[in-house]
Amino acid sequence: MKTLSHCFKHLFLILAAGLILLPFWMVISVAGSHNSDIMGSTAPLWPNIPLLFHHMYQVLFVGVSGLPPYVGLLWRSFLMASGIAIGKIVLSICSAYAIVYFRLPFKRVFFVVIFLTLMLPIEVRMLPSYQIIVNLHLLNSYTGLILPVIASATATLFFKQFFETIPVELLEAARLDNAGYLRFLFKIVLPLSKTNIAAIFLIMFVYGWNQYLWPLMITSKPDFYTIIMSLSQLSASVNSQPEWWQAMAGTLVSTIPVITLMIVMQKFFVKGLIQTEK
Q1: 27 near 252, Cβ under 8 Å?
Q2: Cα gap 147→149, rounded to integer Å
Q3: Do residues 253 and 56 touch, judged by C-beta distance below 8 A?
Q4: Percent over 70 (pLDDT), the chain
Q5: Among 35-44, 85-94, 208-217, 261-270, which is the least confidently predicted range?
């Protein structure tokens, strides 16, 4: 009976994984097909492997639909996503550390105010943020792409909850050794937070990678276009049928860095969310 239960659980997991991966498989199939096959009566279920790699090569190194090669777009998106993730982590660690360990008046009020920003969607903050970027002359710059979106109440809450689980004896021992707040942060708190930092970095990197509306607002030069912005141009067509293989090949290329990062950091991601190193 126990073996049968395990079989049903594994069967359910396989079916669920198949349903989740089906859209991704369709992207691969369309990316490895001709547009005439895609627009036929039956959509292709298996890609032409040589054609798939040829289309990906065109998107990556040649360029399609008047767009530059995706290699440059990938690099710009990587810089933006990494800057957003690192900025969110640094700012969140500083704010959470101050809330937990500093004896500041009204620090609980400040935390509540930070937490309440979760109820404000990014669209509400878009116009004033844009006005500030214009006044600071940061349009078409990496600083303008990164700086306005590095605040994160979610990461602050995550690190605050983790810092509160660190035994108070460690702080008392550090004070006996005449360690100040900065030394305690760098010598004890941050080493204990490595897996948590890795988990938050992955989440925030994906968040930064998927940014579309904000880069669209503040960039007007192709030198600062991101890969997510270019995907909408691949599927846009006014007078003719879109080349769907281009859109799907571009989509596939844009997912490769994120999937690679998730595979590499999977162990740290899971450990950072469910375990501690204390």
Answers
A1: yes
A2: 6
A3: yes
A4: 92
A5: 35-44
Residue 168, exposed/middle/buried by CB under 10 A (0-12, 13-18, 19+)?
A: exposed
Mean pLDDT of 126-134: 87
Q: Is the predicted pLDDT of residue 173 greater than 70, yes or no?
A: yes
Return phi, psi of residue 163, to 5°: -60, -35
Give the global pTM. 0.86
Q: Is the pLDDT score of 269 beyond 90?
A: no
